[in-house]
Prior knowledge:
Methyltransferase domain-containing protein; Methyltranfer_dom; three-stranded antiparallel sheet; single chain; SAM-dependent_MTases_sf
Amino acid sequence: MKDGYHSPYWVELYDIGQEYFDFLNEDANVFLEAYKDMRAKRTLNGPEDEFIFLDIACGSGRVFIQLADNLVQSGEPSDQTKFLGLDYSAHMVRRANERLPKALSHGVKYIQGSATDLAAVKELQGPPSVDLMTFAAGSISVLSEPGQAEQFLAQATRVLRPKTGRVFISVRYVFDDSRKAERKRLEERMDDGNYSQDIPSALFPGIVYRQGRITQRREGNLAFWGPTRAGDKERWKWS
């Protein structure tokens, strides 16, 4: 598996994208309701027992940050819950640990690991005990090599609590010529986020991010996204 966020600059761009494209956050309420429902149904066997929530491809911690805000607003408890975030990128894990939500700080831990090898993650070894697993924002699409998605699903069954454990996977429409109406809606939403101004980095003095227009093309079953201008190698650039 390749690390798509191989520098701290890309991690900050990820956070900027979450702010600019609000539709990337539409699964927040789904995960909130899933947590509330499953947490209420799970009987804890004593003070040492915990409800375990695992967020796959956690990025910089968006799912747990939003969950913390929603739990505070709704007054729902988060005690006796262990929140584990897993990401392949060391830079993402480092950034997530810098942004621990205060409302959940007693029970959140971000760790580096692979979605296709959950059995190797120390925190997941032992009897299968994950109550709720999320794979947010269509990120399962990063498992693009043949057999990787199936490998993840097989690994998930090894760590989910038998009979009651559940995994919630966001499947996001990206590109399909046969679904013209959905493609048009997506293009309109992406156009809304195509800002032309430079964006100064909040983390790295002197760094400015600049976004170009986005085009998309399809070759067989593969979809490609990229900038319009010739010579651009990345959708986002920094200068």
